[in-house]
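Translate sequence into structure tokens.
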Amino acid sequence: MNEQLCEVEISKIFVLNPRERNKQIAGEIKKNIEDVGLKRPITVTRKQFPQDGYEYDLVCGQGRLEAYIANNQTTIPAIIINVSEEDSLIMSLVENIARKNYQPYELFKNVKKLYDSGYTSVDIAQKTGLGKEYMSQIIKLLNKGEDRLLNAVECNRIPLNVAI
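Result follows.
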């Protein structure tokens, strides 16, 4: 993967896979950046077809980006990688799964995006390291709009086979 470290204009970054952040955590990220600076650049990829002023898609680092915006910064250090929009979605999904405190609805929302983009449950399972059968069943529940059952499964209140 070809990588390049640059200062990127914040106004040119599109958050491809947004997620809501706890205000306390957002405040901690902002304060940490104010106190010690940015320890790790964000990761972006160039849009294949820039639109509405956006030239980059955010792959990871939404919290850091939001902290820079809150501190009235206009540029941010970014690693620019050369991947497709689909691959950047997958990388963002994997990044969210790797976080310690990801929310179940975030995982499912991202899985649904990938599935709607044409990835099969097998593709998604391979990219994320989650089981093929698990992913297949999760997608069945997603397609039926069973958000409450999905949440109950993820919180270990009911087994997946019972939800199905």
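Note: The beta strands are 3-9, 13-14, 42-51, 54-60, 75-81.
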